[in-house]
Design brief:
heterodimer, A: about 575 residues, alpha+beta, five-stranded mixed sheet, 12 strands, about 10% strand, rod-shaped, disordered C terminus, B: about 140 residues, five-stranded parallel sheet, globular
């Protein structure tokens, strides 16, 4: 019996201490009222225990205290609830008056037990109980209703508090209906239960908070997932705002980004306007969510978040503020990522339009350059046809040189156009049989170079756009035939062991005059050529090899000239195709 | 022999001259060549020719694509869209070898597309093409 009583007293004292700590940490009207509430309970209870059953002197005076203290509890509870959500002025006055009357009656009524009940004691008890139940009940209902609108942890804390008040009420009713003290134990247990409920409501241990948060976890996880998946700024803001607002009771949130743009969630209201004002007024906020004037502000690199805090947030929303900090970081990440995406999109758009401009320019240029070439060639032909007979051999040679140079110019333009197209025009890599391709090309070249011989070894399959492959090999083979310096050149195409896995290496060699040492590095650049080749009636443009290099490099391959004792040795590395066309063909 | 009437629509005067000259060299029957310097002039010529009941319309039209005022594509669209003109074979003779231009021209109804320059390609294929279209309309041939 004593143990339970002491336990209850100790728990009420502990509650008072808890309230003192809470008040110290965050001074406000609300925490002050909480402190008064539990102080009243603690003091009342302690004094009641300490005062001997037959008090004299000071003890006699103190004997009044417990009843007064305990009976003030509902009023203090009422003031606590009113500090969170204001109450009608008139109601306040009424309650205060009734309380004053109650307390006065108590002071006069209770006293040292003289053995006989004073008159009207039963009436008094009934009145006291009604008063307590009415006030307490009203607060319980208030808390319950407000709590249901909040997210889970806040909600459950408030409900627990309400339950505590209700259970305390129950304890008192038991006392009232049991004057003989038959249910004393039950009363103590009930009082203890209410103390525990108050504890959990005001300072729930971590494991309880985790359990309470479970229903929200899904929602929170979804917020994180959506933030990670968002690719545009608008997406991020649209996902985040309603969620952070919900986290603190759903009355609205405002986001002010670095550029001064404002995004809002929640119906336009005085509260939202207030938040906006706070956001623009406060100094650069920190990442730590701060609560001021009913607004929670979270500072991030990309902007500031202002959330309408419910009146219950300061007291019950510690956890939520913690969560906000974590969310703030995620939001920052999501926003800066969205910005990166946006920049990349724009850069790509610019590159694309530049490419189109270039294409148009190249085309226009080549077209405009070609028109006069057509005219010159045409007129040269006219000269030849109509006045050729008037010219001597020298004159006719002049005409011929006119013709070949102009044709060369035309080819140059054609090649330049081609060079600019490689890599710009999307191509379609596929497995290409080099052996067959080179054999075809050799056959075609044979007509222009009747004394030359072309020898092919078995060559690997490579992955390359078919048209580009043809262009490349034609360039290389024709080059070998033309620049060898001899009519009866032997051009060989051989396969070589590759220097790295996944590539095929092919060598195009000839037994002609070869490539001068100092030229080997430069030969693949545009316009480099080691002088006109004897025997050819026109020079070839130096672009063929440059085009070859571009084709090869675009396919992630390499091209270079090997050192060679006799003639030229051009090596090409290209991606190997696993096999010929078939269901497993490499693409 | 009834003369072969040809309309050349080409803004470059050198090209006009060279084409007319080339045609004269390969024509078998007497040639009546009309020259238009841009698309609008070409359509005007056709309208005038059509006014006389259609007997003066050209048997063949050579069309450049890039001309001021009205380009070749517009002329194509107009001619092939007009039932009284649509039967006239059109040979587009252009410096452009771009696939988009070739496709667009055929889509609009050109009968042939020959690219200029390319070192004499036009000189080789032109007579053949011209022969084909003039022969097709059962008129005096040009020599192949």
């Amino acid at each position: 019996m004593n143990v339970t009583q002491n336990l209850v007293t100790v728990s009420f004292i502990a509650l008072a201490l808890l309230a003192a700590v809470m008040w110290k940490r965050h001074r406000s009207a609300t925490t002050a009222w909480v402190l008064w509430m539990f102080l009243a309970l603690a003091v009342g209870r302690t004094v009641a225990q300490l005062v001997p059953p037959d008090p004299t002197g000071i003890a006699w005076a103190l004997a009044h205290l417990p009843a007064v203290a305990v009976l003030s509890f509902p009023y203090l509870l009422f003031r606590f609830a009113a500090s969170l959500e204001p109450v009608d002025r008139r109601a306040e006055v009424v309650v205060a008056t009734v309380t004053a009357a109650m307390l006065l009656t108590t002071a006069l009524m209770t006293g040292p037990s003289t053995g006989a009940e004073p008159e009207g004691f039963q009436l008094y008890v009934a009145a006291a109980l009604t008063y307590w139940t009415a006030l307490s009940g009203w607060v319980v209902w208030r808390l319950w209703r407000a709590g249901s609108k909040q997210p889970s942890v806040i909600k459950r804390r408030m409900w627990t508090l309400a339950a505590g008040a209700a259970v305390l009420n129950l304890a008192l009713i038991l006392v009232g209906v049991d004057p003989e003290g038959q249910f004393a134990n039950l009363v103590e247990i009930t009082a203890f239960a209410s103390a525990m409920l108050f504890f959990v409501g005001f300072a729930p241990p971590r494991w309880i908070r985790l359990i309470w948060r479970r229903p929200d976890e899904q929602a929170l996880w979804r917020v994180e997932r959506d933030l990670v998946a968002a690719t545009t700024r608008e997406d991020v803001v649209a996902h985040m705002l309603p969620r952070v607002s919900w986290l603190l009771g759903g009355e609205g949130a405002v986001f002010l980004d670095r550029g001064g743009n404002v995004a809002t969630d929640g119906a336009p209201s005085a509260r939202i306007k207030h938040v906006r004002r706070q956001l623009s007024v406060t100094e650069p906020a920190t990442a730590e969510p701060t609560l001021a004037d009913g607004v929670v502000i979270v500072g991030m690199r990309e902007g500031r978040l202002g959330i309408v805090a419910s009146p219950y947030t300061p007291l019950f929303g510690r956890d939520e503020l913690e969560l906000l900090r974590g969310l703030g970081t995620l939001i920052d990440l999501a926003l800066s990522r969205a910005e990166l995406y946006d920049r990349e999109r724009r850069a790509r758009g610019r590159a694309e339009s530049l490419r189109e401009e270039l294409e148009a320019l190249v085309y226009g240029l080549s077209h405009d350059l070609r028109s006069p070439i057509v005219s010159v060639l045409g007129y040269v032909e006219c000269l030849e046809q109509d006045y050729g007979h008037l010219l001597d051999e020298e004159g006719r040679r002049f005409l011929s040189r006119l013709q070949s140079n102009t044709t060369y110019m035309d080819e140059l333009i054609s090649d330049l156009l081609e060079l600019s197209r490689v890599g710009r025009i999307p191509d379609d890599p596929e497995p290409v049989d080099l052996t067959e391709l080179c054999q075809q090309i050799a056959k075609e070249l044979q007509a222009a170079h009747p004394s030359a011989s072309f020898e092919m070894e078995a060559l690997p399959w490579v992955t390359l756009d078919a048209a580009r492959a043809r262009q490349l090999m034609t360039n290389l083979l024709a080059n070998a035939a033309v620049h060898s310096g001899r009519e009866d050149v032997t051009v060989r195409v051989r396969s070589h062991p590759p220097q790295r896995p996944g590539v095929a290496c092919v060598a195009v060699t000839d037994d002609g005059k070869g490539i001068p040492e100092e030229f080997r590095d430069r030969m693949f650049s545009i316009f480099e050529q080691s002088g006109a080749s004897a025997g050819a009636d026109r020079p070839s443009s130096g672009i063929g090899l440059a085009i070859s290099r571009k084709i090869v490099e675009h396919a992630d391959g390499r091209i270079w000239a090997e050192q060679s004792r006799v003639g030229a040795d051009i090596r090409v590395e290209l991606p190997l195709a696993s096999r010929g066309p078939g269901p497993e063909a490499v693409r | 022999m009834t003369p072969l009437r040809v309309l050349i629509a080409e803004d470059n005067e050198d090209h006009r001259f060279l084409l007319a000259r080339a045609l004269r060299r390969i024509a078998v029957s007497p040639l009546e060549i009309q020259e238009a310097r841009d698309g609008a002039e070409a359509l005007d010529c056709l309208r005038e020719d059509d006014a006389g009941g259609g007997q003066d319309l050209p048997h063949l039209i050579f069309l450049d694509l890039r001309m001021p005022r009205l380009d070749g594509f517009e002329v194509l669209r107009h001619v092939k869209g007009d039932p009284s003109l649509a039967d006239i074979p059109i040979i587009v003779l252009s410096a452009s070898s771009r696939q988009e231009d070739i496709d667009a021209a055929y889509q609009l109804g050109t009968n042939s597309y020959v690219t200029k320059a390319e070192s004499g390609e036009a000189a080789e294929t032109l007579p053949g093409v011209a022969h084909y279209w003039t022969a097709l309309s059962q008129l005096p041939h040009v020599e192949n």
